[in-house]
Amino acid sequence: MTNQHSQFRPLVILGIAALGAACGPTISGPEDVEVEALQMDGAWVFTYRESPDLSMHALLTGPAAVVDGCLRVGDQVVVWREQHLGTVGEITARIDEGEVVSVSLGGGGGSVGEGMMENVPEDVRDRCSLSGVWHSGHDEVAIIEGG
């Protein structure tokens, strides 16, 4: 007699491993990620000086807003990849015009309360009040129309 449940065990383990990988980037410290601060429509926006080789697969969706001079999505200050800066410029311009903008982007991050302060790039710490930092992934950034 075969055990019916034994065939499912590898799938459960793979699912747990995938979930763990999707929770965010593994960054050992701010020295590993160099960030440049830019001004777009009066908002501080942050981008990588060199695109890091990070694999991040979580999803952040929420309203984009300028808070204390820094562009945020939800409560996260985002470090954008250079390939996203055209879309980021559109986001900041729309916010500057008074539009409510919702955004969806891949990547990973966490709240400062989760012990990430030592992993927050210095340029971000120096310019923004922080509750969390999101590191954008390779996928495109989507502006959610009507959101």
Topology at a glance:
Elements: H1 9-22, E1 35-40, E2 43-48, E3 58-67, E4 70-73, E5 76-80, H2 85-96, E6 101-111, H3 122-127, E7 132-136, E8 142-144
Parallel strand pairs: 2-5, 5-7
Antiparallel strand pairs: 1-2, 3-4, 3-6, 4-5, 6-7, 6-8
Q: With helices defined by DSSP (H or I, 4 residues minimum), what is the helix count?
A: 3
State the secondary-structure class.
alpha+beta
Return Rg in Å. 18 Å
Low-confidence stretches: 1-31
**How many strands in all?**
8
Approximately how much helix is present in the residues? Answer: 10-25%
Coarse morphology: globular
Largest sheet: 5 strands, mixed, barrel
How much strand? 25-35%
Task: Going across the biggest sheet, name each strand in turn.
Answer: 3-4-5-7-6
Rounded mean pLDDT is 78
Report on this model:
- With 147 residues, this protein is an alpha+beta fold.
- It is built from three helices and eight strands, in the order αβββββαβαββ.
- The protein has a five-stranded mixed beta barrel.
- The longest helix has 14 residues, at 9-22.
- The radius of gyration is 18 Å and the shape is globular.
